[in-house]
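Trying the structure run again after the queue cleared.
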Amino acid sequence: MKTLSRIGILTVMLFLSSNVFAQTSEIKTNSTNDAAGKPGTHLGLLINMVNSNVDYGQSSDELWGHKSSSRGLQIGATFQAGITSRFSLVSEFYYMKKGGQVNAANSPTGQKTTLRFHTLEVPVLARIHFGKFHVNAGPSLTYNLSGKLKSEGSSTAMSFNKSEEGFKRFDAGVQFGGGYKFRIKQRQVVLDLRYSRGLTNLSQSRELYSQYLNLSLQIVNPWKTNPLAAK
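Done. Tokens:
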């Protein structure tokens, strides 16, 4: 419940801040729609370092203060399809290394444990634009390629099966956040802050949900014409 409360508060803050910025920011129009702050259509490259963590469900209160994040690489592509002056659809495909750690002082196990997942992730987001600012949200689907469980100096490859010690391959989740678009010389840059939460219990024997907060910097090249725009 604490996690859901934080998610709700963050969502409200993002939407309120976006509306304030939209009302106070004046966007100068010029020859191209995208330069005028309109969404446009573009394809960009994603290369980021991401701090991810694990939610242990009902055991999270016992592990509070003992968990730490895991840093991993995110690499892939992002595609924004501009539909109207205020609305676009965003689809991404990327590889990500994520997981989490629990130190040895935790009371449930008394062992330092590290989880590592190598994943492929595909989110599809609805993005609403307020001039140069945006908010976005939507579902995501993750496929776990492989993983490792480290404990007390030993490292074990994860088994993706229905056994008691097994894990699940697929994870359905949600993503939401907001961002800002600006220019560096002739390049357009999108800064996007996003929270991702897995809704699938990845473990066969205990509660284990993936989550991460990601600040992404994307250099994009808008298409000169937009065949996807609404007529």
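The radius of gyration is 20 Å. Worth checking whether this holds up in the mutant runs.
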